[in-house]
Amino acid sequence: MNPQDTSFTPDIDPAEARKYDVMFSHVWFTGLFSIAAMLVCALLMAKTEQFEAMLIWVSINCVFVAARWLIVFKPFTKLSQPTKRDYTRNYYFLLGSWFTSGVIWGTGAYLFLPPASQPALFVSFMTIYVGVTTGNLPNFSSSTIAGVLFIYPSILGLTLRVWEYGYGFLVVIALVYIVYITAVLMRLTRVIGRAISLDVQNEALLKQVTIEKENVEIISQEKTRFLAAASHDLRQPLNSLGLFLYSLRQKFTSTDRDKDEDLRGAENAFKALRDLFASLLEISRFEDGAISAELKQIELNEILQPIIEELSPAASAKDLTIVYQPRSETIVSDPALLSRILRNLLDNAIKFTQYGSITIEQKLVEGQLCVSVEDTGIGIPENELSNIFDEYHQIANKRRNRREGIGLGLSIVKKMSELLNHPITVESELGRGSRFTIKLPISSNEVTTNQTSDQFLSPLYGVNALLIDDELDVLMGMTAVMESWGCETVHAETLEQAIEQFGQSEPDIILCDFRLHQSRNGLQVVEHLREQFDSNIPAIIISGDRSEELKSALAETDLGLLSKPVNPAELHAMILSYLD
User: Fold this and answer.
1) Over the stretch 358-402, which tens digit does the pLDDT of each residue have?
2) Looking only at Cα atoms, what is the longest distance across the chain?
3) CA 540 to CA 230: how far, in whole Å?
4) Which H or E element spans position 440?
């Protein structure tokens, strides 16, 4: 049994077992130390008549030490998991061996202690005995009884011989020494006992924490795997629902107020569900390490202006003013991630401001561009400032109204800012508004601004679009949306159907799902269709898969990528850009 081993049977207290182990582990050392000390005593008496008797005394001790090793220590070390009975039996054997060892030492002192008339031998003998008793104290640190059973017989033999020599003052000193050594031993035992108990408790606590940590990691991994596996299946019906609602809104001409409210309620419910699903997947991808930053030199205004234009109607509906002075600054960041951060901050400012304005300010501070979004809204209590970036934490939505989200927005913003190494801070005063500031690195090189072409606003009337998806609901929803824009659509579930329905004519654009229930994926289908029509037809891949592998594969092609659930406005803009 290794003294450091913590594998104990349930029927014994681990702390008690550890104390026994400490005592057992010293058996071999104390045996060798005892033999060496006795040999020194015998050698000191080599020129006396008692030398031969002392050699017999040493031999008896050697036999005893060997027997203790074979009977007590060795069998115990072979036990892989000692029981309480094993510990108890060996403990009492060991107590008996310590008492026997004490008797052997006491007998030697009584028989062989030289008189004071031989001062050199007398002092040497006394010194060895004091050294043996005090030197063994660490071996008895886990058991006061074991120490008493060894020390008392050893000193008693010495005391009796000193008494017979008539050295009364030495007898008194011996008795005082016994009392002192007993007190030291008791204190040492208590200290070591507490240390062992603390050590065992810490090990148990560490083991529990490790198990809980492993359980949390397993749960997190299972959640990530579930979301990754379910994302495609969940995106399909959600995508279809959004497309059908958009198509229904385009066709809706009724002046019936009740029907309009019903449709608006369905649209709001869909938006809440879509945002919830997207947020959960976003958090999952961060935890899985699936999101990486692609830093580029970009004009900040190219990021901010579209966001302001997108959210201005929501601000106008609440009579809020967005104050923004464009500034020509080139920064280094990931356009997509930075856009998400700024959109979330501006959207929150609009959501939690009932009157007043939202100011977007840019300042150069110590070589960095500080972009602030400041509102005149409800503000944040001081004791909540440290919690607003926590997952699922909401201040103004204690009733968990799903229209106001689930408290993941700022958590995702924080994770994105950390990924980009763009520090984000918040200042707020309750009832007067909040100010979120993000620091962006300035680029040392100029970047040419891309001009927006007027043709991006051109309608899609007359565009021949080929839609490929193995989900019929998605096809029908996509068809309804495309036809509302004036497109001529042909839809197919397989490559063969697509070739058959289009015949020799060539589509203007291909929209193809990535995961198809066949041996080919969307990339292979598009490649085959281009070979079939002998033309580099513009094509967009639509997928719920947001993995880096898919992005890498598409980066080597001229294909577009649109994530599910599809936003009709994004789809419209992407089709126009690929038809340019």
Assistant:
1) 999 998 888 889 999 999 888 888 777 777 776 555 555 444 444
2) 130
3) 23
4) strand 433-441
